[in-house]
Design brief:
The structure holds two protein chains of two kinds. Chain A is mostly helical. Helix content of chain A is 76%, strand content 0%. The radius of gyration of chain A is 25 Å and the shape is globular. Chain B is mainly α. Chain B has one domain: MetI-like (MetI-like fold), CATH 1.10.3720.10. Chain B contains 16 helices and no strands. The relative contact order of chain B is 0.13. The chains are: A mainly alpha, B mainly alpha. At the A-B interface, α1, α6, α7, α10 and α11 of A face α6, α7, α11, α14 and α16 of B.
Chain lengths: 318, 326
């Protein structure tokens, strides 16, 4: 088990390295770099401006050979510097450390809400299969999954202004300054992000349905155990094993969706950082943000695999 | 010898009614919600294919005097900030969603089948490495990947289809891999082969009937999520370029200043999008329930159905609902 864990963690290093190379190559292939975007921006303001593109590229270090730029960036990564923004000249690591808590809080809140909604509905739906309760639960989940988050959010903002005269906060309130104001600001986008909880409900329903048809549940039943004991101790505990490792990917999936919510509700998280960097082709930041997400994802999958063994004593890794 | 056996097996085959008609009848009879979904999907298809015939105004036609007009007999769903008829734009938007949805899913299927089948057939270390890669790919936040790649290579039909098609295909390589194992593993594939069936017969009589349900479900569910992704990207301004009407682009952020005065600009495109996704979802669910061989024939008595167990609380709930019906 320990050897397996070490092996998996060591394998992460070449994987992430390969990822950075691919990303870097792709970024080099993209039409236009930061200077080109800058030149277009300047020309829009002042069409007759005299710009020395070569000089600009030299200043930003974009005229150097690719391999040199890459090694330069990679060296930075080893020093804990994921990239230096070409616009602000600020460190991407510093900027991300400021933004990660915001994205994390938003996702955590929405994740908790999703679990609170999805777990009971999924299990009840299975236990009461084909009853009105089941149909009701499934109806809600399909409806939730069909509502586009960005539409619900926009509708909310537009009609809140029209009917209630309520304008959402444009300025971000840190938790340490005003916990209640902060939660107020986060709860609406978090609720909207929980709309696709239906996917989890479905999986849970299927899992529970499979488990309650197992032989050991029938055995427990026939030896006269109380219903509550069968459901909670025998059925649900077994249904929870795959769930354990399923929840983490659900959380990771949310990270992607939070880009839209951050943009709509003006939360200065990672998603908005990536969006603004993409708009001006600030590639060190784009690279840094993607490196962060990839590493997070890859580390998570290792943890998920190991948690299988931890949660289910039947699985052994060698 | 072998030929004669093959002929016998063909001759004794039972004539079944047209499977498509049989399927439609079962859908209408057993799945009312799924039928509603099918109607929505049909409407979506018709709107997308015959946009020119249905839309009251040509694409992007600007009526500058009537800009921000509320819904009226001239403009059933009102006009937007440029004076374009919302209804026409939404109908043309269906075409965009349709093109993106179908071509991305087609691309995804091709990529998934290529990766899955080769990985499954070759097996061994190659299979292991490919599966690790697929696992790792599945934990990346896809929206971030799409945004980054679209941000790098620019937006357009081809780019969107390639990006979403390839990455979705990698993620979906599991199913075809299992298929390869199934074919390799023998079972009735080998029996059919031993009976002298040729490759074409194996594919049409044995492989396709087993794969089709899986494929139909994957495609219907896939189109929904692809359309959602595309509209999400368009909403952020990273979808298709300017003049192409996407449902996501119609409610995109920079138009919010007009929406407070003209709420129909946000209500209708989203409503149509949500209805379409809902239709695709429930239709996909119904198709899965009807076609998945594992779900077939499961309707037995009370005992057989739940592995011998009928929870008391549930029995009560069932009794209650029956009482209400009578």
């Amino acid at each position: 088990m320990r050897n397996y864990a070490i092996k998996r963690l060591l394998l992460l290093i070449p994987t992430i390295f390969l990822f950075t190379v691919t990303m870097f190559l792709a970024l080099q292939l993209m039409p236009g770099d930061y200077v080109d975007a800058l030149v277009i921006a300047i020309r829009q303001q002042d069409p007759g401006a005299e710009i020395d593109v070569e000089q600009l590229k030299k200043e930003f270090g974009l005229d150097r050979p690719m391999i040199e730029q890459y090694l330069d960036w990679l060296g930075g990564v080893f020093r804990g510097e994921l990239g230096v923004s070409m616009i602000t000249g600020r460190s991407a690591t510093q900027e991300m450390l400021r933004r990660i808590p915001i994205t994390f809080e938003l996702n955590l809140l929405s994740f908790i809400i999703t679990c609170i909604i999805a777990i009971p509905i999924g299990i009840y739906s299975a236990l009461f299969q084909d009853t009105p309760l089941d149909y009701l639960g499934r109806g809600f989940t399909v409806a939730g999954m069909s509502l586009p988050e960005f539409w619900v959010a926009t509708m909310l903002l537009v009609f809140a202004v029209l009917w209630l005269g309520w304008v959402p906060m444009v300025r971000y309130i840190p938790f340490t300054q005003d916990p209640i104001g902060n939660l107020k600001q986060f709860i609406v986008p978090a609720l909207i992000m929980s709309l696709p909880a239906g996917g989890l409900v479905r999986t849970l329903r299927t899992l529970t349905l499979e488990v309650i048809r197992q032989d050991y549940v029938r055995t427990a039943w026939s030896k006269g155990l109380r219903e509550r004991v069968i459901i909670f101790r025998h059925a649900l505990r077994n249904a929870m094993i795959p769930l354990n490792s399923m929840l983490i990917p659900v959380f990771l999936g949310m990270l992607g969706g939070s880009v839209i919510m951050e943009q709509i509700f003006c939360l200065p998280g990672m998603g908005r950082y990536l969006l603004s960097a993409l708009t001006v082709r600030d590639w060190p930041v784009v690279l840094g943000v993607n490196l962060f997400y990839t590493t997070l994802g890859l580390v998570t999958i290792v943890i998920v695999d190991l948690s299988y063994a931890w949660a289910d004593p039947r699985i052994r890794y060698d | 010898m072998i030929d004669s056996i093959a002929k016998v097996s063909v001759a004794t085959e039972v004539r079944r009614p047209n499977p498509f008609i049989e399927f439609v009848v079962r859908l209408v009879r057993e799945k009312p919600l799924g039928t509603a979904g099918a109607v929505i999907v049909l409407g979506f298809l018709i709107a997308g294919i015959f946009s020119e015939l249905i839309a009251p105004y040509p694409l992007n036609e600007i009526h500058i005097i009537d800009r921000l007009e509320p819904p009226s007999s001239n403009y059933l769903l009102g006009t937007d900030n440029l004076g374009r008829d919302m209804l026409s734009q939404i109908i043309y938007g269906a075409r965009v969603s349709l093109i993106i949805g179908f071509s991305v899913v087609a691309m995804q299927t091709v990529v998934a089948v290529l990766i899955g089948l080769t990985s499954g057939y070759i097996g061994g270390t190659f299979d292991l490495v490919v599966q690790r890669f697929v696992d790792a790919w599945n934990v990346l936040p896809m929206f971030i990947v799409y945004l980054t790649v679209i941000g790098m290579i620019g937006s357009g039909y081809l780019q969107l289809i390639l990006v979403m098609g390839i990455s979705g295909g990698i993620g979906g390589a599991r199913g075809p891999r299992m298929l390869a194992f199934w074919v390799k593993g023998g079972g009735y594939y080998e029996s059919a082969r031993a009976l002298g069936a040729n490759t074409r017969q194996i594919i049409t009589r044995h492989l396709l009937p087993n794969v089709m349900p899986m494929l139909i479900v994957a495609v219907t569910a896939g189109i929904g999520s692809v359309v959602l992704m595309e509209t999400g990207l368009a909403f952020l301004g990273w979808g298709l370029p300017g003049q192409i009407p996407s449902w996501g682009g119609m409610i995109s952020g920079d138009k919010r200043i007009y929406m407070e005065g003209a709420p129909w600009m946000v209500v209708f495109p989203g409503l149509v999008l949500a209805t379409t996704i809902f239709g695709l979802n429930v239709f996909g669910d119904a198709v899965r329930d009807l076609l998945d061989p594992r779900m077939r024939g499961g309707v037995g008595g009370k005992v057989g159905r739940f592995g011998g167990i009928q929870f008391k609380a549930k029995e009560k709930a069932l009794a209650r609902s029956k009482k209400k019906l009578h």
